[in-house]
Amino acid sequence: MLQVLIGIVIIAAVIVGGLYFFQRITINQINDLQAAKQRLVGLHVDADLRDGASLSLTGESLTQFQRLQADYKEVNDHRFKEIDELADDIRHDVRSVNFIKVRQEVSQLKERVAATEKKLLIIQGTL
Fold first, then answer.
1. Does residue 91 contact residue 24 with C-beta atoms inside 8 Å?
2. Terminal CA-CA length for the chain
3. Per-residue exposure over 38-70, b if at least 16 CB sit within 10 Å of its own CB, e if not
4. DSSP state of 1
5. Contact 127, 49 (CB under 8 A)
6. What pLDDT shows up at residue 99?
7. Which residue intervals of the chain are DSSP H helices?
8. Phi, psi (deg, nearest 5) at residue 120
9. Rounded CA gap, 111 and 114, in Å?
């Protein structure tokens, strides 16, 4: 009887250790992705756009510049907030035992950060 009890305690300890390990890995991934987002904010594309706004652009150059401004505004106003909100949701959800949902959200966060980085680099490269 004592051996069964010891076995149950060991299994419970392994499960708790696995949950802790999963939470740590997920939180580290979230921190890395938010650091990547902060690096994107640090690109100072807004300063480049302000410099470009001081130029006397006309025709197609002006249209392209306005498109870049609109793209940056969308990234700055919406995508960065979505990334932060999703990261906060994952931080909250990681405390539960819904591994599948958390993994899907982490994948979604990775995709959003990658898409935002690609869009910002295109904007910066075009400027």
1. no
2. 74
3. eebeeeebeebbeeeeeeeeeeeeeeebeebbe
4. -
5. yes
6. 82
7. 2-41, 45-53, 59-74, 80-93, 99-126
8. -65, -40
9. 5
Both tokens of 104, joined, read 């899907």
Q: Which residue type is seen at 2?
A: L
pLDDT for 115 equals: 94
Residue 120 near residue 43, CB atoms below 8 Å: yes
Question: How long a stretch of residues is the chain?
Answer: 127
The residue to which tokens 């994952």 are assigned: 90
Q: What is the pTM of this model?
A: 0.81
pLDDT, averaged across the chain: 89
Supply 64's token pair: 């392209």
In tens, the pLDDT along 62-109 reads 888 889 888 889 998 999 999 999 999 999 988 887 888 899 999 999
Q: Is 98 left (phi over 0), alpha (psi -120 to 50) or beta?
A: beta
- Which phi and psi angles does 56 have, rounded to 5°? -95, 85
With beta carbons less than 8 A apart as the criterion, state whether 3 and 67 touch: no
